[in-house]
Amino acid sequence: MIAEAGHYALVLALALALIQSTVPMIGARLRDPALMTLARSTALAQLAFVGISFMALVALHVMSDFSVANVYENSHSLKPLIYKITGVWGNHEGSMLLWVSILALFGGLVAVFGNNLPLSLRANALGVQGWVSTAFYLFILLTSNPFLRLANPPLEGRDLNPVLQDPGLALHPPMLYLGYVGFSISFSFAIAALIEGRIDAAWARWVRPWTLMAWMFLTLGIAMGSYWAYYELGWGGWWFWDPVENASLMPWLAGTALLHSAVVMEKRNALKVWTVLLAILTFSLSLLGTFLVRSGVLTSVHAFATDPTRGVFILLILCVFIGGSLTLYAWRASSLKQGGLFAPISREGALVLNNLLLTTACATVFIGTLYPLGLEVLTGERISVGAPFFNLTFAPLFVPLLLALPFGPLLAWKRGDLAGAAQRLYAAGIAALVAVAVLWAWTRGGAALAPLAIGLAVFVIIGALTDIAERSMLFRMPLPIALRRARGLPRASWGTMFAHLGVGVALIGIVCETTWNSELISTLKPGDVAKVAGYELKLDAISQRQGPNYGEMLAHFTVSRDGRPIGAMTPSKRSFATRGMSTTEAALMSRGVSQLYVSLGDTAASGAIAVRIYHKPMVLLIWFGPLLMAFGGLLSLSDRRLRVGAPKPAKAARGLQPAE
Amino acid sequence: MTRKQRRLTMIGGALVVLAIAVGLVLNALRDSIVFFSTPQMVAEKHVPPGRRFRLGGVVEPGSLHRGDNLAVTFKVADGSNALEVAYKGILPDLFREGQGVVAEGALDAGGVFRADTVLAKHDETYMPKDVADALKKQGHWKDDYEKAAKPGKPMQGASR
Amino acid sequence: MSLWFVLALMTFGAIFAVLWPLGRRAARQPEGRESAVYRDQLAEVDRDIAAGLIGETEAAAARVEIGRRLIAAADAEEAAAPPSSLRLRRAVAVVALVGVPVLAGGLYLRLGTPAMPDFPLASRMRAPAGGQSLDQLVAQVQAHLEKNPTDGRGWGVLAPVLGRVGRFEDAAQAFRNAIRYDGDSATRRAGLGEALAGAANGVVTAEAKAEFERAVALDASDVRARYFLGLAAEQDGRPKEAAAIWRAMLDKAPPDAPWRPLVAAALARIGAVAQAAPDGASAKLPALPEGAAAAAQGMSEGDRAAMIRGMVDRLATRLKQNGDDVEGWLRLARAYMVLNEPERAHAARDDARRALAADEVGLRKLNEGLKALGIDG
Fold first, then answer.
1. d(CA A79, CA A87)
2. Neighboring chain A residues of C346 at a CB cutoff of 8 Å
3. Is A37 on the interface with C (CB under 8 A)?
4. Cβ neighbours, 10 Å, residue C309
5. Residue A609, Cβ density class (10 Å: 0-12 exposed, 13-18 middle, ≥19 buried)
6. Are the C-beta atoms of residues A327 and A319 closer than 8 Å to each other?
7. Mean pLDDT taken over chain A
8. 3-state secondary structure (DSSP) of residue A51
9. Is there a contact between C357 and B62 if contact means CB atoms under 8 Å apart?
């Protein structure tokens, strides 16, 4: 009954989404308040039903009901409970259901917290959400239905891929989806604005918290995925420019641009047309990311052939939403009124530069990801575009972006004073030069670019701190006053600081890790000692252990430095009987923000074991950076000006409302 | 500055950035893309030594030899030809004889493929897509691979 | 609560969600205003001035700009919203009342399987199995027995299966449980003995022999027990006794007995000194060199382990010198697996592959054997 009830709830959610996508929009056209408010209740009911459906699938996985094909294919009765649950979204059908559940969740949030929106905007935006939901419900029900049953229920499931049985990956897809799907709100608002033909500074303020929220989740999701790859895949890499990763990076870049252009629009009523376009593009890239990863088309065009209905459906959804929204944009954008003026050197100008560089960088990633696909379709030639391509295109675009980053917040709106800003950045510039000089002297003969890059990162970090110091007039006023001023600053200013700080911190981590990491691959026997970057790792013993659904071989290392033992590391190799495959569990030891990393390879003929040992200096900064960025986003989100659903000084406004 | 001038400045700036980006992309596409080949294609095309490419195929059963200090050699076959591959390092967990594999590297003077990266995919029935397509074209294809191969799984690799 | 009742309840919920706002005509919906945002922005400019974040001139310019937006927004909002149309509301209500159940019901009946009940792990145990792989069945039954450890018949079913898939120690335990909870029988004693012998890598230990003797005591015609007693005699270095037992079996055997060739082959093996590889089931149980096993009888556990160890080591040495014996390699790998030393088994595998690199047929045979042992890779 659970399976069938869940299935029916999903169908009901589709029916409600259909109503949500039509009736409120008709209501908005005819200015009928009752029809417009229908958006709210249908969005909430839709959330309830898709929630029931999702919980039903979770329950089926937990109870190991193998009469459900999806459970049979992706679960196993002996799997630990937590992975039974995470296995729900570890497969195509389940992840699509999670996707649409999150979509409904955001729709529900708009319905609940959208009281500060004009009725017609809310109705139209929720209506557009309804379209997206409808398309996804149909996709799920017709091509990827997780509730299909097996007439002869098998007795045991086929297990979840052991690589996916990891706590990091349990959280990574939901985070990523919260990000992807969160951008659907800005998309819906953009389409709603195009339909109404009117867009103003207020629009940006309404959209910004949603964009910010999506951006935060996406930032965390990407960082989490990168950390997962780092410790689970067992060879210490954290970013591979893999199509799957690029698919999440593209919406992030576009979303970051959107976040910044929405500021301009909110403050100056400028860049309206561009912001709407960015909102559409960001969600389009999210859709592209979701589908291209899921359909496997990025690894090969022929993947489409394995399941034509699914492939055609995906193409259809992409065409309708991306093509349709861009057409609507082309048609209506000219009718949007021009906004405020500004000089090229100004806060607006800096944000335009930011947008320009971010979108261009996004475009290069797009080309690098899709060029092989296009080439294969056109010529049949198969190529792969790897890290060298992105290092040669993406990095040069980020250098000017980071150079300009500290200037932006110091420039005034409308017309800025570049010389003044430069003057205030003296300290940051000098700190950066000192960092470069020191590193150069220290690593003489080493990589020439690394000290420069770290200098750039220092510039960004000190620049971000300078901005907040300027605002609180630190060093210019007595300390207590400055502190009081600092406390009184809008939280968004603090958010900006933390986010920009995060960029610099992540850059330091990236540069240090790639330039100065040391690696040792060797075969060790118990009793052998390996030396890496001043650490000595002694292999004490090799032992066996039985886990819940795998056997495990553990290697016990004692780590010492300068003869003093500082800890133990036990990397292992797990073999999963059901799938007949094994995974490598690396052992990590953090020393400050640097890490030692040990992973195991095969056992050699002599009984010695192959071991990979890395020392990765400053590697944790790579993920602290995004954490700081997300924290900055959270601070901005809590700013009273943006607080979602906080009733504006509405008493005065209500006086304007006509009595019925 | 008038509105028009301002706009021209902005558009000019945007065009400069775009031009630079296009230049970068074209330059990178010329230098850093890597072609995919099967042993048969290598034999037919006479790939010069030192040029990087990706080699895909099936690890020939029984061809895997482990030498000292993690050096391994194995043969990658596609049904009609086989190519000797030398690699030093730890192979990915899923590397197995008789399974599909993709190696990246270049031929040396002796015609041995010196790989610096070996990739296998996270699925026991997995056949890397590149390999599957190439094999399919040559008619050495097992249908069950196709059914079993699920897209979207993360790649697993080993690299020096 | 039947399924249909739940489905109906959910349908009502969905329809209610649509009808509810339509019925609340009088209630004024809270609505945000654009002008509210601009008022807030004006207030913010004041705050920024108070905090000294912007200068007076900038503030004045900002106020002018925001004021312009505020006026425009207020103008747009002046137009009163028309009252809701009753006709439209009725139309939507009808759509909801009819459309939702028809659409949802229609689509669900096409896609769903309402007649099929849930089939969770718990209830699955009771259901009959069919067409399942052996491993799945074993896991199945084991899970069941973990919860009902006194189900003797369950143990009785599981035990021989475990023996067949090579899990001898588990099999022995299962036979013991079956005997404890469901009574003794010759078949079970013989099975236990076989499992014990299998666990000792084919050596019919004293313990195993005792079980076979018990089996024969229960049923003198138990074929398996007698065959193994013969094997025990052979391993003990008494080939004549072994031959006598087997010959007696063959004499009484019906001509179409399926085990006839096996026993005949065993007989031939001890008759002819030539070490022809036995076929069939006995391939699992390599005969020990004469004399060696004799010593194994009556040894303590530790001594016997040491002896087995020594034999395995001798085999390993021999194979190192002359590596083209596929069966030998497999025996060695299996021995290591039995001794619970998978690393050595893997090492043996790699050595074997290297030694047999030139021998294609041998290599294939080796890989098949290794697969059966579960250490191909």
1. 10
2. 603
3. yes
4. 12
5. buried
6. no
7. 86
8. helix
9. yes
How far off is chain C from B29, nearest CA to CA, in Å?
Answer: 38
ipTM above 0.85, yes or no: no
Question: C353 and B66 in contact by Cβ < 8 A?
Answer: no
Q: Which of A351, A392, A573 to mutate to test the interface with B (most CBs of B within 10 A)?
A: A392
Helix, coil or strand: residue C273: coil
The dihedrals phi and psi of C369, each to the nearest 5 degrees, come to -65, -40
- Taking CA–CA distances from B158, the nearest residue in chain A reads A235
**How many CB pairs below 8 A link B and C?**
12
Angstrom distance (rounded) from CA C193 to CA C215:
9
B contact chains, 3+ CB pairs < 8 A? A, C
Q: How many DSSP H helices and E strands does chain B contain?
A: 4, 8
Reduced to 3 states (helix: H, G, I; strand: E, B; else coil), residue C301 is helix
The answer to whether C78 contacts chain B (CB < 8 Å) is no
Chain B residue closest in CA terms to A357: B17
Query: How far apart are alpha carbons A317 and A323 in whole angstroms?
Result: 9
Task: State the Cα angle at C256 between C254 and C259, rounded to 5°.
Answer: 85
pLDDT digits (tens, 9 = 90+) for B114-156: 998 887 654 433 344 555 555 555 444 333 333 333 333 334 4
Q: How many helices (H) and strands (E) does chain A have?
A: 23, 11
In chain C, alpha helices (H): 3-23, 34-51, 56-78, 86-94, 100-111, 121-124, 134-147, 152-164, 168-182, 186-199, 206-218, 223-235, 239-252, 260-271, 292-296, 301-321, 326-338, 342-355, 360-373
Edge to edge, the sheet with strand A594-603 lists A518-524, A609-616, A594-603, A587-591
**How far from chain centre, in Å, is Cα C108?**
34
- Judged against a pLDDT cut of 70, whether residue A264 lies above it is answered with yes
Cα-based torsion angle of the residue sequence C297, C302, C303, C308 in order, rounded to the nearest 10 degrees: 80
Residue of A nearest to C22 (CA): A34
SS3 A63: coil
For residues C4-16, one letter each, b for 16 or more C-beta atoms within 10 angstroms of the residue's C-beta and e for the rest, the string is eebbeebbebbbe
Instruction: Give residues with Cβ within 8 angstroms of A8, minimum separation 6.
Output: C7, C10, C104, C108, C112
What residues of chain A lie within 8 A of the CB of B25, using their CB? 364, 367-368, 393
Per-residue pLDDT of B2-18, as tens digits, reads 777 777 888 888 899 88
Contact C373, C337 (CB under 8 A): yes
Instruction: Tell me which residue in B61, B65, B96 faces C354 most closely, judged by beta carbons.
Output: B65
Q: Please, which residues have CB within 8 angstroms of residue A76's CB and are 6 or more apart in sequence?
A: A64, A156, A157, A158, A159, A160, A549, A578
* Among candidate residues A193, A196, A195, the one with its CA nearest the CA of residue A205: A193
Q: How near does any CA of chain B get to the CA of C353, in Å?
A: 7
- DSSP single-letter state for residue C205: -
SS3 state of residue C336: helix
Do residues A95 and A106 make contact, with C-beta atoms less than 8 angstroms apart? no
How far apart CA C133 and CA C146 sit, in angstroms, is 20
The pLDDT-based confidence of A495 (bands split at 50, 70, 90) is: very high
- Provide the residue type at A334 as one letter: S
d(C-alpha C272, C-alpha B74), whole Å: 44
C 329-358 near B (Cβ less than 8 A): 350, 353-354, 357
In a mutational test of the A interface, the residue from C48, C108, C320 whose CB has the highest number of chain A CBs within 10 Å is C108
d(CA C257, CA C221): 13
Question: Distances from the Cα of B96 to the Cαs of B58, B61, B92, C360, in angstroms?
Answer: 9, 8, 9, 18
Does the global pTM surpass 0.95? no
Least confident of A304-313, A524-533, C298-307: C298-307
B139/chain A closest Cα distance in angstroms: 15
